[in-house]
Amino acid sequence: MFFGTPEFAIPSLEALLRAGHEIALVVSRPDQPAGRHMRLMEAPTVAVARRHGLALAQPEKLGVEEFVNRLRGIRPDAAVVVAFGRLISPRVLVIPQHGFINVHPSLLPRHRGPSPIEGAILAGDDETGVTTMLLDQGMDTGPILLQRRTAIGARERAPQLADRLAEIGAELLVETVAGVEGGTIRPQPQDNALATITEKLDRRLGRIAWSLPADELARRCRAFDPWPGLFCSFRGTRVKVHGLEVGAARAGAEEPGTVLGVSNAGIAVRCGGSSVAVLSELQREGRRRLPADAFILGERVAPSEHFR
Predict the structure, then answer these.
(1) By CB neighbour count within 10 A (0-12 exposed, 13-18 middle, 19+ buried), where does 297 fall?
(2) How far apart are CA 166 and CA 9, in angstroms?
(3) Domain containing residue 73
(4) Is residue 40 predicted with pLDDT exceeding 80?
(5) pLDDT given for residue 77 in this prediction
């Protein structure tokens, strides 16, 4: 059985099919309203399941008797969970013979929780990876099966890193399933003393605090792409900041958020301490994204103005 919902889960599902595994059931979260008109959007894994003619379920709750009985009737050898987005009911966890194998996009026990990809970028980690593990009733606390590491690019954003980890995870999953089936993998307990926990992303995290160091703001810009993004106010209206890099440090007593200078490279803004951020792409609310030089020209941005 395969439990997964978003785009991140698709490479793993397709890799299992290519490897010749029989997928008895694909379980996805129910379709969710999205967009300006809040129309129901089909979950990405649902489209894949239908294209391959796979049995599909989208239960509101996993622990209800009817659904649990359906899973028991399948008598699966194993279940796989990839970005399902919901805790698995204890009544369901015990059904597969070999348990639930989870693909988690971090090097557990580092970055447990709901935002491990963003968490690795925010922490300034040089590397991350994928862990396959057996689910238990905790949050990403089960025993580790296999891990694979990868470097994080200096300017890599969350979507690009997620795409890479999804492909790495798919390869590692196929290797893991073969090892579990063949009895060649011995689960290893996690060291809870080394665990870190990521937080659920929230729109409020995107508000720029200019008193923070520029390098932290740059990490936030890469981690919070595309959501919640970075935003601030300029001349009383909301502005999204799509590009923010660390500029050369400059001593001074200006208030954080003060424009220090403008150029074709971007808008230099005072941040915490002596650090400077360079804004390279901006978007006024309700308008299109602009490179900094076009934004500067259109808005006539001048030194000593303030981003709030």
Answers:
(1) exposed
(2) 7
(3) 2-194
(4) no
(5) 97
In a domain, 307, yes or no: no
Could you give the CA distance from residue 235 to residue 270 in angstroms, rounded to a whole number?
A: 17
Q: In sequence order, what are the residues at sequence separation of 6 or more whose Cβ sits closer than 8 angstroms to the Cβ of residue 127? A: 107, 149, 150, 151, 152
Separation of alpha carbons 12 and 132, rounded Å? 12
What's the rounded Cα separation, in Å, for the pair 50 and 57? 11
Whichever domain contains 92, its CATH number is 3.40.50.170
Query: What pTM was estimated for this model as a whole?
Result: 0.95
- Count of alpha carbons within 13 Å of 273, Cβ hemisphere only? 10
Instruction: Note whether residue 304 is domain-resident.
Output: no
Summarize pLDDT for 109-155 with one digit per residue, the tens: 999 999 999 999 999 999 999 999 999 999 999 999 999 999 999 99
Q: What gap in Å lies between CA 115 and CA 167, rounded to an integer? A: 18
The CA-CA-CA angle for residues 124, 129, 135, to 5°, reads 120
Do 211 and 190 have their domain in common?
A: no
Query: Which residues neighbour 85 within 8 Å (Cβ) at sequence distance 6 or greater?
Result: 5, 6, 29
Hey, what amino acid is at 181? E
269 within 8 A of 209, measured Cβ to Cβ: no
Distances from the Cα of 208 to the Cαs of 96, 129, 285, 305, in angstroms? 46, 28, 15, 16
Residue 93 falls inside a structural domain: yes
- In sequence order, the 6+-apart residues with CB closer than 8 A to the CB of 64 are none
Claim to verify: residue 127 and residue 234 sit in the same structural domain: no
